[in-house]
Amino acid sequence: MSERVIALVDQRPPSLPLPSLPVGQDLNAQPLDGLRRPLTDLRISVTDRCNFRCSYCMPKEVFDKDYAYLPHSHLLSFEEITRIANVFVGRGVRKIRLTGGEPLLRKNIEILIEQLAALRTPDGQPLDLTLTTNGSLLARKAQSLKDAGLQRVTVSLDGLDDTVFRQMNDVDFPVADVLAGIEAARAAGLGPIKVNMVVKRGTNEREILPMARHFRGTCIVLRFIEYMDVGATNGWCMDEVLPSAEVIRRLQTELPLVQLDPSVPGETAERWGYANDQGEYDPTLGEVGVISSVTQAFCGDCNRARLSTEGRLYLCLFASQGYDLRQLLRDPAQSDTTLAATVDAIWRGRIDQYSRLRSLRGPDTTSGPGRRVEMSYIGG
């Protein structure tokens, strides 16, 4: 009698040692990393749990009913998250995105949003505060999120065909409920709304045009994301990557597009606007974006850091280890100045450019201790 064996996966490898702090460190200037990139965007994972089992992120074969998630005591409290977020704002962060797992599974997340919405930059400006969700709980929570101070949402949606969508989320969740969540977010004023579609060749590429038709002219920005080699559990294969150039080509067969300039420095998506009959961009028709971290690396101006659910700082989506800031947060002897100096030193030592290096030497298929951290642990 044969038995099926599933390897245990620990998303949380040993942390990197915190850097020594230089004497006389200047905390007045915004830090630049080793490639002269500023720190302006912080993504905070508030839970490692999700109610979907998308094969490209949390495959059911690994994240089953016996999977050991982080105990609640290991998670950063809302007060700890707000404190460290304020430190990052002092170092240059202007945008905070809440992620997961599925962030709406975190109990009373509206309280955290209220705390973060109250933060101000050194020149007194509010933050760009946003959240990425699979949309499953959005219909019932959209208004409370807006009332708490959330500005906008990004919704993951991998197809409009219900059969395809249920296959992608692997928990038999209906696409209609996600669409209802998007409408609730629009009604609550959580905009501009973005919808992210991970395109996996052989699975959902036929949904590209239907998705574009559905969201064209709605003021919702649809973005197509190349299937990425994140983590060690999704069985990534280059053959399943549909390059963004091919996505644009397919769209152009029916919906003429005009390439647009980036809206902000360090933007991950290449923007394309729908053209009118004269071949000119028509803002009333909206736009699409493509995120091409596999075929067109955008490491050169990456300005993002990621804070895991338990307070580890990761400098790249494809990192294998992070820096444990929770030990400083929970040490009463450590001041915010020490936290700021530590964040500063970590960022100044950053030279991460995984996607660019992958394009030069091929993907890293490491499955041992140096394997990349799972996306569900640090957010997308």
Structure description:
This protein has 380 residues and is of the alpha/beta class. Helices cover 27% and strands 14% of the residues. It is built from eleven helices and twelve strands. The chain has helices spanning 78-90, 109-117, 138-148, 162-169, 175-188, 208-215, 244-252, 326-329, 336-348, 354-361, 375-378; strands spanning 41-45, 95-99, 128-133, 152-156, 194-199, 221-226, 257-259, 270-274, 287-291, 304-307, 312-314, 323-324. Strand 5 (194-199), helix 6 (208-215) and strand 6 form a beta-alpha-beta unit. Helix 2 runs parallel beside helix 3 and helix 3 packs parallel to helix 5. The longest helix is centred in the middle third of the chain and has 14 residues, at 175-188. The model is unreliable at 1-10 and 365-369 (pLDDT under 50).
